[in-house]
């Protein structure tokens, strides 16, 4: 099902490998690169968020710009993120107590240090999915739906988000689970995920799909955070939409409709950006001509705080 997609070299010694599945498609949806079974069901995890945001816009959510980008985010927990979550909730007449996501600490290294230094404790607000949950709550208020049960997979909100995912992926959801934040999680294939991201990135100006893509690409720091690879990736690719997810998932769409979706089999995050950039190279993106992309093309392996090796793609 999976093949080796990345190697971990410590000096001249091959120490470890990462297996995975990768699909890169051209503007017409044709396969440019396929590794592994891209038609097997998988959970997109947080790579679902742009599609969930689209579903919320279709249901009447009024967000745009950086707050819409935050609704698609797995944010680092920086001040701009927390203030933005409060702003989304306030626009719906709600406070942070309405959030039903799992209490957690910020995932950004700098944000975590600052938060702990101030005596912070795990909370729903600092959970990396709080932007999505705030947007979900605002969508419920806009429609007069119950806000206490918005995480129920049978809630009108979640039914609409499932319908949007199926529409954009061009396939039916095959399994429903619970994501780390408590929201329903719908399984599709890597092929469906790539199809959805290609459609998002190539949608015409004025469409809701373009609204999501523009918000994320214009405000990439709200989608991830300072130094995060997803933020850096969108900053280097004008008009692109990209979203990382737990368990080694990554999806990206380019303005011409090309797309990449991938999953690292062991769930590791460290090889995920490396594999993504290798797939972009196969799509003809000038990786070596861009400082950010070339930096993401490998990942350092450290020994005693010094770089002693690298994580490299196998293709």
From TrEMBL:
Pfam families: Asparaginase_II. InterPro entries: Asparaginase_II. It comes from the Bacteria. PANTHER family: L-ASPARAGINASE, PUTATIVE (AFU_ORTHOLOGUE AFUA_3G11890)-RELATED. This is Asparaginase.
């Amino acid at each position: 099902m999976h093949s080796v997609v990345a190697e971990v070299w410590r000096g001249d010694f091959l120490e470890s490998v990462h297996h995975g599945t990768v699909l890169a498609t051209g503007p017409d949806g044709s396969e440019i690169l396929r590794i592994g079974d891209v038609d097997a069901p998988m959970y997109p995890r947080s790579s679902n968020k742009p599609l969930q945001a689209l579903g919320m816009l279709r249901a009447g959510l009024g967000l745009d710009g950086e707050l819409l980008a935050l609704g698609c985010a797995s944010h680092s927990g920086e001040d701009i993120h927390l203030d933005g979550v409060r702003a989304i909730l306030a626009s719906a007449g709600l406070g942070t107590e309405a959030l039903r996501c799992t209490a957690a600490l910020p995932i950004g290294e700098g944000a975590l240090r600052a938060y702990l230094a101030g005596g912070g404790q795990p909370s729903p607000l600092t959970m990396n999915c709080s932007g999505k949950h705030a947007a979900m709550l605002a969508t419920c208020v806009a429609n007069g739906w119950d806000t206490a049960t918005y995480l129920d997979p049978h809630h009108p909100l979640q039914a609409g988000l499932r319908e949007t995912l199926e529409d954009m992926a061009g396939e039916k959801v095959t399994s429903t689970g619970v994501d780390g934040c408590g929201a329903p999680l719908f399984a599709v294939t890597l092929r469906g995920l790539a199809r959805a991201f290609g459609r998002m990135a190539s949608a015409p100006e004025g469409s809701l799909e373009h609204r999501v893509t523009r918000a994320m690409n214009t405000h990439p720091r709200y989608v991830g955070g300072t130094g995060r690879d997803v933020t850096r990736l969108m900053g280097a690719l004008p008009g692109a939409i990209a979203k990382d997810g737990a368990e080694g998932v990554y999806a990206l769409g380019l303005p011409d409709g090309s797309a990449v979706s991938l999953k690292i089999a062991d769930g590791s995050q460290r090889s995920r950006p490396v594999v993504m950039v290798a797939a972009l190279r196969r799509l003809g993106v000038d990786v070596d001509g861009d400082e950010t992309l070339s930096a993401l093309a490998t990942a350092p392996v450290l020994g005693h705080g010094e770089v002693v090796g690298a994580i490299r793609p196998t293709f």
